[in-house]
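I hope you will forgive my troubling you with a question about protein structure. Here, with my thanks, is the record as I have it:
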Amino acid sequence: VLKFVEVSVRANKVNILSVDASDVDIKTYSVPIDSTLERVTFSVSGSDISIKIQNPDGALLTERNGLQRLLSLKSAVSVAVRRPRAGVWKVSVNCSGSYTLRITGLSPLHFLYGFSLIPLLNGRGGLLRRPYAGFRNFAVVKVQGLREPGSVYKVQLVDLVGKVQQEVIFAPRPEEPFTFDWVNFQAPRGLFYIRVIGRDLRGHEFYRCSPTAISAVLPDSPKVSADSLVEVLRGSPVTLTCMVDSVTPFRVQWTKGRDALGPVLTRVGQVNVTHSIRVTTDRDEGSYTCFASNAGGTAIAVTRLVVKGKQAYRIYT
């Protein structure tokens, strides 16, 4: 039973606000608390830290009027409020240096997200948890635990200090009112949160942030494979094949020694790149290298061509 409760609580935990600040002075945050939140926890850590919380009426919360103290140290404070009144709350933080502020809650209203380098047909397919750096990605944001007349109207990318880096209108799919396809998504530099803003069933504004900060990643280097040994009769045609697989655009070329065999090709996805010899001679024998590179690195595959036997003849009858 306790394990079931633990899993249920973890599943309903949502992130409302996350800030890593360097302000030495008192800072006040306006935080919308919606009607789906059953409990809200305010946690702050730093040097000589203190926190004050005011409800929508402007009343200062204390342990006498609903504030539950979870942790009280000189460098960390955590308090909670059960069944908070919906509206805009004020959270004031006083610290002698940098600090972190986390506001989380228990609510069935949350969202899922994922990234891809190619559009997903009907929104289906494999999604990545992090976007690729230096590329235009496709992002999908799906809000769950909300139904009409509740609505979502904005998606933001927020940096660690709480500053909005990008903002777009939540334009839902025609058949899915709470799913949004962000075309040409380009990740900002550094860490960022995804924030979804909307209104719940009762018209109260809600904030939901991604559980953790996100950073763009470089793609893996291409996967390259080719036959290690190819044998051919002297005078016969032969085709060397190199298979390259990369989720991002890559450049590929066959070489022999220092000689380039054909132009550098630019491709994406899973591609077979070939080099053909119409009539093989002893001079064609040797090692051939398939070079492929993308933003994540370079990979090679080497094929050794062995020319054997007598000249092949084609007999027509």
Q: What stands out?
A: Confidence is low (pLDDT under 50) at residues 1-9, 312-317. The chain is about 5% helix and 55% strand. Helices lie at 2-12.
